[in-house]
User: Fold this.
Amino acid sequence: MGLFSGLELNSMSDLFVAQIADLYDAETRLTSALPKMAEAATNPALRKAFQDHLRETEGHVKRLEQIWGLLGSQPSRQTCEAMKGLIAEGDEAINATGDSDVRDAALIAAAQRVEHYEISGYGSARTFAQRIGRTDAARLLNATLDEESAADAKLTQIAESQVNVQAGAR
Assistant:
């Protein structure tokens, strides 16, 4: 089942709520996955980036809970099958054997897939919020979108300046 399976979408508000439930599940799952990625990383800058992003992700969960409150609802999770799959790919990188620098490059690739998924999800949710007049929610979603974009840029910087250079020497 995917994001839109089994849903009745009769309005942009319905779509917005479905997107928030999906993002809430995705971020909650990431709070368990990021510590494993940090532990698996051998590059100190990469480990720190994962640890820093864990703290940000915990903040993303809180922002989504704020949005639920703005909507007058309790937080609700809709299983995010995409994030489950992305985390499984990250687990493959975590459990890979071989050169540690190459494995760090694989961790970055897996993490950037997650970031790109989140950037897409938050961008859509922000647009939906704006469309239905929820500028309060749009502002919170935009703050998270900015952090997700910054995390992706940080991973690119670490990959291009350190990890891929070291892995490429193999």
